[in-house]
Amino acid sequence: MAAEDAGQVEPGASGIDELFLGYVERFRRMMEVERNASPHTVRNYRLDLLDYGRWAARAGVDPLCATRRDMRTYLGELDAAQYSRRTVNRRLSSVRSFFKWMVAEGFAEANPADVVSGPKLARNLPRAIPAHDMVRLLSVWRGSERPSDMRNAAILEFLYASGVRVSEASGLLLKDVDFDRRQVRVLGKGSKERIVPVHDLAIASMREYLYRARPELLYGKPACPYFFVSTRGNRMSSDALRKLFKQSLRLAGLDLSLTPHDMRHTFATDLVEGGADLRSVQEMLGHSSLSTTQIYTHVSAAHLKDEHRRALPRG
């Protein structure tokens, strides 16, 4: 491999092999341009790869020529440092994806992480927000005449009504919202498009935001193709949506450890408990595999057991 193949070196990563950093930069650009990955995903991949690069520098290992034994040593040190199993697996996945790309592009001969297994994860059930808490959350901004509050109300209603990911809500375009058909077109992972129906309450909130609040948020600013805009007239980023969600939890007096993804889990859980078939739920969530969606059948079963215990005196 030649140094000139590596591209621009990432800043702020002193001590890490510069050739490796160059390939990390090329991988990052590929994720952005070819795979259309969200900024959040790209940032996480980069941070994981920089962690691997720092470990390689400390261990005296060439990060581009690591062996499977080196990879097991790396994972062992992460475990010894008491990183969670989920974090260890995510870092292994990032390194594996990076080397898979390197091999495909002809920059490396083998993927040292291809057959290395991470620690097994406990299969935790997704956390759904209870109905009474969801009512409180969705009511936080409702009724306000402030443009930003009307937007916030529409965002929360949309997240719950559609089950979309934060990155998908951030990337929602004006042209992809169809009020007449009560549906939106969503660009999901891997640039896969799907159509998601949206219920009447969310449609009403989104319509009110679009025609009453959005023009004020954009007043005197350039046109923006995205549906949800900031007070500066720009696209609402994923980070901004997460901060809004946290602020909404605080105002509602709810558990601050809840996340927008728990809203997605709640959407799916409510669908399954309401009798929706798994294939339909899979389509609405944008899951590539039905096995991913099947976790919600376990959530529904757990809910039924809880109700059984509460309802029966000898439960």
Number of helices: 13
Class from helix and strand fractions: mainly alpha
Radius of gyration: 23 Å
Q: Largest sheet, if any?
A: 3 strands, antiparallel
Specify the oligomeric state. Answer: single chain
Low-confidence stretches: 1-12
Distance, first to last CA: 67 Å
DSSP helix fraction: 55-70%
Order of helices and strands: HHHHHHHEEEHHHHHH
Strand order within the widest sheet?
A: 1-2-3
Query: What is the number of strand segments?
Result: 3
What would you call the shape? globular
What is the mean pLDDT?
84
Q: How much beta, percentage-wise? A: under 5%
Topology:
Layout: H1 18-33, H2 39-59, H3 68-80, H4 85-105, H5 131-139, H6 147-162, H7 166-170, E1 177-178, E2 183-187, E3 193-197, H8 200-217, H9 238-252, H10 260-273, H11 278-285, H12 290-293, H13 295-311
Antiparallel strand pairs: 1-2, 2-3
Helix pairs in contact: 1-2, 2-4, 5-9, 6-8, 6-10, 10-13
Architecture overview:
The chain is mainly α. Helices cover 56% and strands 4% of the residues. The chain contains 13 helices and 3 strands. A hairpin with a 4-residue loop joins strand 1 and strand 2. Helix 6 packs antiparallel against helix 8. The protein is globular and about 60 Å long.
Q: Which terms summarize this structure?
A:
single chain, 315 residues, mainly alpha, 3-stranded antiparallel sheet, 13 helices, 3 strands, 56% helix, globular, disordered N terminus
Gist of the model:
With 315 residues, this protein is mainly alpha-helical. Helices cover 56% and strands 4% of the residues. It has helices spanning 18-33, 39-59, 68-80, 85-105, 131-139, 147-162, 166-170, 200-217, 238-252, 260-273, 278-285, 290-293, 295-311, and strands spanning 177-178, 183-187, 193-197.
